Recover the amino acids of this structure.
């Protein structure tokens, strides 16, 4: 089967800094892969490359069948990205935000409602403006936006950061469900224990390059 | 061989330009006659009109190169647009200064809010904005894209300038050359054409040099890049005892 | 009408001086950069 | 494209409804400019009456800079730009939506300012037939040029200073044409006024066209 993500010697420049200096990575469809490595190793850039947000300047890069060195836009509507930033309009309510972004992606109204319910955002919170939310609640809203878009490739950058216990469990559940439904998931995380538990395998990223893979721990995934 | 942006071609071109300037000074200040209406002041025209023409030509090149950059995305067009705008800005400044110095003795004021003056000043400000975008500390490609869009926008504004000129009736001289005024003295016309030719040559000469300077700036920027990638790779291999490429999927 | 030679000479002088300064600075910068870039990348020589 | 435009415009108007930045901050600023002109110029009505049209449009343009800054600050804050790029929204649709929302806000502002000049400057709005289409065409032009430069400068560190430098010279023809048309309109419509209106329409068309073709690039690279 064609891999969901295929990178070979991928180089990506942030200005004049080679954030990625030759990444090799193959991820099969439906696989959950943990990217681990120190700060500044290039994990975030790697995820942004896969989302088609950052240009791959050299090497091969194919995501969901789109050759990113030719066109990095077509892949975008098929991926969901949870970054450090929320990607939300501060002055709009939670419901407004989820409705806008999911409608932009062509999702049905029911998807948005279901996503909000899944993340515990229905009821009172739905009508609260985002700038009044706590960091964890914002994260949940971003996750709801992502869930409503039904991406085929999930790119999660530190998904557990800033969440309480139930929020973390929620993230793990979402990842498991996504993988079960056939979506591919890349997680960059420092919470190794938790992330290893949901990932099929992990890949070390150091100095803008991938280094090694560890054996799978797939028993934990339903 | 040599450590400059000059080549045989530019040396020849530069020599011709210098000789041209000497001739322009000779004809403009000595040989050409005083005008019946303007007196000696007509000599200002040999600087004012050619710089204006060549400046507008330079911005036309910038606009065309911006369009070409947006279509082709090659460094060449980016450098052409940039270099041409820089030279155009200098020439347009010369146009404004010579125009003011001409206006003071003829009209009694350095500046009037006449349509053509106003719109030329406006174009100057637009170009300053364009060059400000050019100096932004951004990625080269990003900056080139933004500058190309701003450069492209010089065109609609210049067209509106033109309409404003024809609609606002003012004291500015009409387009003298286009009418091919028969009263204009032969030597006077020759000097004007000489001025045009000399400033056009100057433009081409400076353009070649500016292009090369800007090209070198990019190459100097690139120099660090290979080292940076190598360093980044060393960081990767240093951190791991046994570096080897990632294996394929485990499926 | 005055003959206005003062204006004329100022005009010519200013414009020529500005051009000389700009050409000189540009060529100086060119020299400085050219020394840093390997010869094979300066194809015009 | 039209669906995306409606979605973005609706979102922007809702955002204004919730935050009320335009009505609580930009509109008072515009009135303040009018009052300051009255202070600066001899309170002798003669000068104000003669300069009314010009002062009106200067006030509109200064306020428009603020409105543009606001409209695009929300699009680049906290990862929203990445969201837009991933959203699958048509960039041309986003442009049209932004222009529509901006134009709607500017029109409200112009109505307020119109009331202001009638009250403070004792202007006589006789030539409504010319004034209204002039406002519409000028507003469309300013909104289109503003959106173009708004997205261009929004991601830059120097956005506050570079936006007026780039935008104000570009919309200067609007200032000239709208002022001339207003002067004609304030003293009863003449053929001269219609000609300036024509120029405004050409300007608006040019910038809408440019925006449709280049917004994609600006969203990508600014």
């Amino acid at each position: 089967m064609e891999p969901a993500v295929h990178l070979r010697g991928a180089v990506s420049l942030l200005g004049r800094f080679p954030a990625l200096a030759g990444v090799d990575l193959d991820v099969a469809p439906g696989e959950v892969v943990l990217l681990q490595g120190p700060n500044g190793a290039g994990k975030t850039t790697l995820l942004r490359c896969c989302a088609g947000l950052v240009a791959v300047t050299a090497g091969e890069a194919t995501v969901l069948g789109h050759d990113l060195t030719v066109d990095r836009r077509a892949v975008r509507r098929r991926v969901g990205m949870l970054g450090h930033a929320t990607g939300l309009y501060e002055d709009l309510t939670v419901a407004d935000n989820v409705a806008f972004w999911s409608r932009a992606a062509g999702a049905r109204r029911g998807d948005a409602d279901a996503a909000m319910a899944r993340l515990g955002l229905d009821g009172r919170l739905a009508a609260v403006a985002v700038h009044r939310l706590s960091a964890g609640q914002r994260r949940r809203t971003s996750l709801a936006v992502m869930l409503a878009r039904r991406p085929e490739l999930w790119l999660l950058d530190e998904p557990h950061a800033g969440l309480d216990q139930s929020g973390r469990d929620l993230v793990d559940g979402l990842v498991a469900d996504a993988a079960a439904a056939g979506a591919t998931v890349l997680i960059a995380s420092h919470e190794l224990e938790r992330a290893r538990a949901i990932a099929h395998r992990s890949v070390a990223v150091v100095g803008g390059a991938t280094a090694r893979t560890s054996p799978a721990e797939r028993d934990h995934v339903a | 061989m040599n450590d400059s942006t000059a080549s045989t071609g530019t040396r020849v071109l530069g020599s011709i330009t210098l000789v041209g300037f000497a001739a322009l000074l000779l004809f403009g200040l000595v040989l050409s006659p005083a005008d019946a209406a303007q007196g000696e002041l007509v000599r200002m025209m040999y600087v004012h009109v050619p710089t204006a023409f060549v400046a507008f030509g330079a911005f036309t090149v910038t606009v065309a190169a911006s369009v070409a950059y947006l279509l082709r995305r090659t460094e060449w067009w980016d450098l052409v647009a940039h270099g041409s705008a820089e030279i155009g800005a200098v020439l347009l400044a010369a146009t404004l200064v010579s125009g003011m110095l001409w206006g003071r003795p003829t009209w009694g004021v350095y500046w009037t809010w006449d349509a053509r003056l106003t719109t030329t000043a406006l174009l100057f400000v637009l170009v300053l904005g364009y060059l400000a975008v050019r100096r932004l500390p951004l990625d080269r490609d990003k900056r080139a894209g933004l500058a190309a869009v701003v450069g492209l926008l010089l065109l609609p504004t210049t067209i509106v300038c033109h309409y404003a000129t024809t609609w606002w009736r003012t004291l500015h001289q009409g387009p003298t050359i286009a009418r091919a005024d028969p009263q204009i003295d032969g030597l006077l016309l020759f000097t004007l054409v000489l001025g045009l030719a000399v400033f056009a040559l100057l433009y081409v000469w400076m353009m070649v040099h500016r292009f090369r300077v800007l090209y070198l700036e990019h190459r100097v920027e690139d120099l660090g890049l290979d080292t940076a990638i190598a360093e980044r790779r060393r960081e990767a291999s240093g951190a791991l005892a046994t570096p080897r490429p990632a294996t394929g999927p485990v499926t | 009408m005055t003959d206005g030679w003062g204006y004329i000479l100022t005009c010519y002088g200013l414009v020529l001086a500005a051009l000389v300064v700009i050409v000189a600075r540009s060529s100086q910068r060119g020299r400085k950069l050219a020394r840093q870039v390997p010869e094979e990348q300066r194809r015009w020589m | 494209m039209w669906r995306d435009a409606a979605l973005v415009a609706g979102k922007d108007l809702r955002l204004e409804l919730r935050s009320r930045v335009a009505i609580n901050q930009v509109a008072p600023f515009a009135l303040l400019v009018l009052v300051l002109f009255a202070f600066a110029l001899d309170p002798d009505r003669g000068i104000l009456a003669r300069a009314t049209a010009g002062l009106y449009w200067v006030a509109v343009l200064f306020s428009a800079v603020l409105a543009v800054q606001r409209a695009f600050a929300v699009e680049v804050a906290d990862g929203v730009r990445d969201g837009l790029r991933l959203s699958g929204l048509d960039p041309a649709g986003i442009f049209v939506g932004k222009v529509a929302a901006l134009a709607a806000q500017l029109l409200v502002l112009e109505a307020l300012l119109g009331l202001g000049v009638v009250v403070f400057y004792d202007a006589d709005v006789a030539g409504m037939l010319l004034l209204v289409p002039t406002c519409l065409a000028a507003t469309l032009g300013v909104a289109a040029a503003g959106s173009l430069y708004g997205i261009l400068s929004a991601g830059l560190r120097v956005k506050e200073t570079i936006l007026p430098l780039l935008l104000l010279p570009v919309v200067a023809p609007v200032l000239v044409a709208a002022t001339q048309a207003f002067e004609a309109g304030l003293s009863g419509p003449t053929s001269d006024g219609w000609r300036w209106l024509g120029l405004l329409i050409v300007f608006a068309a040019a910038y809408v066209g440019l925006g449709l073709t280049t917004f994609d690039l600006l969203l990508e690279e600014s």
About this structure: The helical segments of chain B are 8-31, 45-72, 75-107, 115-134, 140-152, 154-167, 176-179, 186-239.
